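Help needed: design a sequence for this.
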């Protein structure tokens, strides 16, 4: 059996930040999950509905792996990414790192992981791999999935080889921190303003604050959008609240990031953003509750109310991001 030593196998709420936490703590850098998410400019919004989709999808963060790339660039980390179409080469990439004493991040399809209780294809799932033997691989996943877990080597191979939306070609990655690691506090303002600017100026109407507005208009039509509202609407609500989002479609994580930042920086704009995201997070959870109730009861009024709340959220988040985009341009308090 090969196992990387000194692994802090701490499961967190979200998969990518969980894996990043494992890799960075092994490098001696221990940041909170909200700080990892915020420094990676992870917050976003997507309303996604296509002709081949059974039901619309609401996403609350940037594309899979963008958070990792953002964080590495911001902190000056050496990010080594390896991809291949060959399962044999892919496993060689992983074992070489593990044999050298380094944990590895993997992007894969969670459907094939035997410890997952909910079997839904999601090709953007990320885990940290820290050991293997002849039969099983040893991973760190979210706290919800068990934290330190193991999976059969066959299941891991299928998860890595899967094709479909958001999948990657056997993607694995390692992170190396430089000796002169910059103080993460110095990267807070660039991370926040980059996130705010992207949210305020999305390239298409499905993204950012425009996407939230669009969701507010379309969610009231969801009972007519599906032949199985009793299944699809509650599942959409679960994805918003419990599917590795940290609750409130990642808004709880961003709220907590901003709260942590207010203890490090004295900024009126930062405090305004935190106050507004605290309000928005509560409304996201209420909207999810209404969406689930609509599916369970068939009550159209629940969706009408959820749509109205999403309209309010779009306004609140737009106001919050406008305040946060002004960070760095204010005089010292």
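Sure. Designed sequence:
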């Amino acid at each position: 059996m090969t196992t990387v030593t000194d692994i802090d196998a701490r499961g967190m709420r979200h998969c990518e930040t969980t894996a990043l936490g494992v890799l960075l703590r092994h490098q001696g850098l221990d940041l909170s999950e909200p700080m990892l998410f915020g420094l990676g400019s992870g917050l976003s919004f997507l309303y996604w509905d296509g002709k081949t989709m059974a039901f619309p999808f609401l996403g609350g963060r940037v594309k899979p792996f963008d958070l990792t790339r953002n964080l590495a660039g911001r902190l000056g980390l050496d990010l080594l990414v390896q991809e291949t179409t060959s399962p044999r080469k892919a496993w060689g990439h992983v074992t070489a790192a593990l044999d050298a004493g380094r944990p590895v991040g993997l992007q894969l399809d969670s459907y094939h992981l035997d410890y997952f209780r909910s079997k839904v294809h999601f090709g953007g799932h990320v885990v940290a791999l820290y050991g293997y033997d002849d039969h099983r691989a040893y991973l760190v996943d979210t706290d919800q999935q068990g934290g330190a877990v193991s999976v059969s080597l066959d299941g891991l191979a299928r998860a890595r080889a899967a094709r479909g939306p958001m999948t990657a070609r056997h993607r694995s990655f390692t992170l190396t921190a430089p000796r002169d690691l910059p103080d993460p506090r110095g990267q807070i303002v660039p991370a926040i303003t980059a996130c705010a600017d992207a949210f305020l100026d999305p390239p298409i109407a499905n993204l950012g604050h425009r996407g939230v507005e669009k969701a507010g208009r379309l969610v009231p039509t969801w009972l007519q959008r599906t032949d199985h509202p009793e299944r699809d609407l509650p599942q959409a609500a679960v994805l918003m609240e419990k599917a590795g989002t940290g609750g409130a479609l990642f808004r709880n994580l961003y709220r907590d990031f901003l709260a942590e930042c207010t203890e490090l920086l004295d900024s009126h704009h930062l405090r305004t953003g935190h106050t507004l995201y605290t309000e928005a997070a509560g409304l996201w959870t209420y909207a999810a509750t209404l969406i689930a109730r609509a599916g369970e009861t068939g009550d159209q009024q629940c969706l009408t109310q959820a749509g109205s709340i999403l309209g309010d959220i779009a306004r609140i988040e737009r106001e919050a991001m406008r305040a946060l985009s002004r960070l760095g341009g204010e005089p010292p308090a």
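Residues 117 and 145 are 8 Å apart (CA to CA).
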